[in-house]
Amino acid sequence: MQKTTPLLLQVIRVIKLLFHVISGVLQSLVYPYFPQHIRRSMMQRWATGVLACLEIRLQCCGSVPVAQVQRVLLAANHVSWLDVCVLMAACPTRFVAKAEISQWPVLGLLSRNVGTLFIERAKRSDTQRINQQIAEALENGEVVTVFPEGTTTDGFQLNHFHASLLQSAVNADALLYPVAIRYRNVAGGICREAAYIDSSLIVSLQNILSQPRIEAALTFTPPVPSGLRNRRELARLAEHAIAEVLAVPIVHKESGKFSGLPSE
Description:
Helix content: 25-40%
């Protein structure tokens, strides 16, 4: 039988998380006014704190981009809303998200203040604007992350990578880092409870809290220079690199929660 966290400990974790989120919102009010290296440190500390509140242990493999590396775009598989915190804790980064998130209470304010790039998912024409914003952020020395699947999965498969937002890497002559994300439970198996599939944020949080501990494993595969490739080549290279690390099949269909990436 799989172990679960006692209810009292779950309540304690929720209280700690609540105070940490409030702290993050307050910090986000002044976040835009600090220089880039301080913003990176603030983001990393806050994300690490979220993981600590939820008893999520982060393990990184491969070559994590350092601050001195310029024009870095991360392309990761998408399993959970936890992906954002896990990636920020390992490598402070901005994200591309669906525009609806900007209107969410608390989390919307937090996302806006830390520089999330919002895309109108119903407008294919909005892709060009977002690609330009991503390219500008890369040129300014910021790391940006996209989830090319456009959806979340349960961790047992990888969905087809859409190429639309990878045009920004071509435009900026960036280094594309495919990043494989996997969550494991205390028994060492894939943690289904970490996945955000067909549930509300509250239910997802309850599932995560039920786990005594979750291990989040990030694998940064070797970067791919983007200047001499097209976006579809980049999508296939990233897709196969991540599938190989995770040892999962690539499924060419859409499923799960939408992450804000238009189809192509």
